[in-house]
Design brief:
about 15% strand, single chain, chemokine activity, elongated, alpha+beta, 3 strands, OB fold (Dihydrolipoamide Acetyltransferase, E2P)
Amino acid sequence: MMMMILISVVFSLLLSNTFLNVLCPGCCLRFSQRRINPGLIVSYYITDPRCPKTAIILVTKMSRKICVDPSSSWVRNTMKLKDANSP
């Protein structure tokens, strides 16, 4: 009985967001629902392929990192704008 409880606890930890963040600290678990003004964005990057969700991380002038959905049209437009303006 004690072994079943231990297995359940370990399994729960493996599935938890906290454990996922330890394994993949650069992964996004949720996407921001707010549109970000492209003028506030200095760069962006794509999350590691090992992450459970593919995401774009926008980096603001204040060095804030915001996870956004790569399939959103405003995100794709922001990425094109940044690519066009980069040296």
